[in-house]
Each structure stands twice: as C-alpha cells, then as structure tokens.
Amino acid sequence: VQLQACGGGLVQPGGSLRLSCAASGNILSIRDMGWYRQAPGKQRELVAAITSGGGTNYAESVKGRFTISRDNAKRTVYLQMNSLKPEDTAIYLCNADVANWNGRADYWGQGTLVTVSS
Predict the structure, then answer these.
(1) What is the pLDDT of residues 6-37, one digit of tens each?
(2) Burial class (CB within 10 angstroms; exposed 0-12, middle 13-18, buried 19+) of 114
C-alpha cells in the first residue's frame, strides 16, 4: 500500500492551499483517513480525520479554516486549508486505515511541506 501526498508549498499568511493524498496498492477497503502535521521541535498532531461515511473531526486550531474531504472511488483524501497562519507551517502527513488480504493496518504518506510566510 502506498500513500502519495501532494499540494504543499509556500503561501503568504491568509492564503490557501489544497493537499491531496491518493492511496494505491493492495487495498480492499479504507476506513478512516486523516491528515497529521509535525512542525520543527514539536510532536506530531492530528489536523483532521474523516471516516468512510464522511464523519469528520478537526483539531481546535484549524476548525473553521480547514476542510477535510474524500473521494472513496479515487481512494483519495483532501485537505482544503484557508486563512493560513504562520503557525500552520509544518510537514503534513496523510494516514489511512487500510484493510486488505493481509489484514488491517495504518499506512502513512511521505509528507508534504507547507510553509506560511510573508
């Protein structure tokens, strides 16, 4: 199973970015998908998560600014980030809870860097 994330970059404060993460490989079904982030010197934290049925969960710091969504047919999760702040600067990693013929396990993408700076 591979998770390929893209969409990061440099953006000014107040700007927007859209991240996407596509899953491929030995997959029967995907349950929860999510985005985490890790800033230098800080612990990895959950940004947003979405269930296969579309239920969502957000970190308090991003509520009202970020929106997570998914396309189950494309096995892809998205993170629309608006009103970005310098404190959103981090490596963003996608995660998926995948079931296949080997069982069920968590998989991680390679991360995409988001830098919010003027």
Answers:
(1) 999 999 999 999 999 999 999 999 999 999 99
(2) buried
Which residue has tokens 């959950």? 46
Q: Which residues contact 53 (CB under 8 A, 6 or more apart)?
A: none
78 and 58 Cβ atoms separated by less than 8 Å: no
Q: Which long-range contacts (CB under 8 A, 24 or more apart) does 99-107 make?
A: 99/27, 99/28, 99/29, 99/30, 99/31, 100/1, 100/26, 100/27, 100/28, 101/26, 101/28, 102/26, 104/31, 105/1, 107/1, 107/2, 107/3, 107/23
d(CA 15, CA 18): 11
Q: What is the dihedral of CA 70, 96, 81, 46, to 10 degrees?
A: 140
32: its two tokens: 């929860």
